[in-house]
Amino acid sequence: MTRQIILDTETTGLNPAGGDRIIELAAVELVKRRPSGAHFQRYVNPQRSSHPDALRVHGLTDEFLSDKPLFGQIVGDFLDFVRDAEVIIHNAAFDVAFLDAELERLGLPPFSQQCAGITDSLGIAREQFPGKFNSLDALCKRFGVDNTRRTLHGALLDAELLAEVYVWLTRGQDSLVIELDGPQEDTHAEHVDLRGIELPLISADASELQAHERILQSLEKASGKGSVWKPG
Predict the structure, then answer these.
(1) Which pTM was predicted?
(2) Residue 219 forms part of a structural domain
(3) What range does the domain containing 46 cover?
(4) How far apart are CA 148 and CA 160, in angstroms?
(5) CATH number for the domain that contains residue 112
(6) Residues designated catalytic
(7) What pLDDT tens digit does each residue of the chain (232 aa) get?
């Protein structure tokens, strides 16, 4: 699949079943796993106030959102943008629950039927880094992605950061794309026969063996559990 959409939302709270709503929806496009420059971003009037904890995260006040369109007014453009694409979301269950709730209010099919498929980048990260923090900020730090602009959560900025993180997470696929798209290796290079080359064998001298033994003894003493490298 050559077209992928990286998606993020901001919401009034954590519970779509309890009436929390989407207040920002953003997505960026990757074509052949590279940013195409196309993106979608809309603020949405949720017709309710954000929970104080959510407001501290995104900073989108009731006053700012009061003149923004309702979800039903932007949904057509949004669905056109994601149609026929694989959609990548970090912690997809959260965003999809909100999208499904908004679509259900409008009598529309669930989000999974509006795109070619949904991939959870958090699941990919947990498989690669089990037992580690795999939030977007943690992954940005791990992969050297600059997230210094992320003083508040914003859907478009988070989607842009996730796009970079996703390419790093799936860099095995990326290397294949680079190999196919980039210059091909010269397969006609001159063959060199290495069978006659003998590699030298250099043994440790007495002082080096003594230094090595001292290191092993210090490790054994520090562990307090005995050595696993010495025969029983």
Answers:
(1) 0.73
(2) no
(3) 3-181
(4) 13
(5) 3.30.420.10
(6) 153
(7) 589 999 999 999 999 999 999 999 999 999 999 999 999 999 999 999 999 999 999 999 999 999 999 999 999 999 999 999 999 999 999 999 999 999 999 999 999 999 999 999 999 999 999 999 999 999 999 999 998 988 778 999 999 999 999 999 998 654 444 444 444 444 445 566 666 777 777 888 888 888 888 887 777 777 666 666 665 5
